[in-house]
Amino acid sequence: MRKYIIAGNWKMNKLPSETYDFVKEIAKVTEGATCEVVCCTPYVCLTEAVKAAEGTHVKIGAENLHFEDKGAFTGEVSADMLKDIKVDYVIIGHSERRQYFAETDETVNKKTIKALEKGLIPIVCVGESLEEREAGITMDLIAIQIKKAFANIEAEDAKKVVIAYEPIWAIGTGKTATAEQAEEVCKGIREILAELYCEKCAEEFVIQYGGSMNDQNAAELLAKPNIDGGLIGGASLVAEKFAPIVKAAK
Ligand code: 13P
Question: Ligand 1 centroid vs 218 CA: distance in angstroms?
């Protein structure tokens, strides 16, 4: 049995001074959750988030990291730095980073390898644009993204990676993929993983859906056999909207 993981991606929202109270609120409204609950916050909020999550069921994640250990990389943050402040998860290759910050399948691979080496749980994002979907190349594109992300990663390590399927056209648009569309791609991702590793290994991967997931559509999406959680943007910023999504993951 795979464990559901519901992770909030705050993106560039909330202030460090708001973080402690908000994470405490998330812990309170999701008390008794049967799934893993994660808040991924901006770097500058992480210390407060970790402090607030201590002694609760909530885990904390970063939204990015650099693939080098240390050195002259002005403005970057390493895996060791995240581990040092007791961060557990890290989002890698979000479409916004691919689009605006030149993230590529190669950097996604390097970052995933580094995160695993340092004991962080990577949440690796993949997804197609509207043009790619309309051109009928969604699964081809996802296959390339997955294969490149997992290059040179052995099965034992690979299984620790959470995959988030986030169709770009559904992010922040209010236009969710239907549960059938999301399931089709998540199932396809599991088939690619079975090909890369083995059938049994593929069954162990947690695959999330992300893109305008909310309290209204979460239950239907999460009921699908290959959708094991969600990566939530907008709805993770309001405790009353995030809590029902967590509740739906059972
Ligand atoms: P929204 O839930 O705001 O569409 O964002 C999804 C997302 O990008 C999570 O990483």
Answer: 13
Domain 5-10+60-233, second-level architecture: Alpha-Beta Barrel (3.20)
pLDDT in tens, 92-118: 999 999 999 999 999 999 999 999 999
Residue whose CA lies nearest to ligand 1 atom number 2: 233
Would you say the CB of residue 40 lies under 6 angstroms from ligand 1?
Answer: no
Q: What residue spans define the domains of the chain? A: 5-10+60-233
Instruction: Identify whether the C-beta of residue 126 lies closer than 8 Å to the C-beta of residue 189.
Output: yes
| CB atoms closer than 10 angstroms to residue 31 | 13
* Cα gap 119→110, rounded to integer Å: 14
Catalytic residue among 48, 94, 96, 128: 94
CA 91/CA 177 separation, integer angstroms: 21
Determine if ligand 1 sits within 6 Å of the CB of residue 236: no
* pLDDT tens column, 196-222: 999 999 999 999 999 999 999 999 999
Cα distance between residue 54 and residue 87, in whole Å: 11
For residue 129, the CA-to-ligand 1 centroid distance in Å is 14
The SS3 call for residue 231 is strand
Tell me, using a 6 A CB cutoff, whether residue 212 lines ligand 1. yes
> Considering only CA atoms, which of 121, 141, 119 is closest in space to residue 130?
141
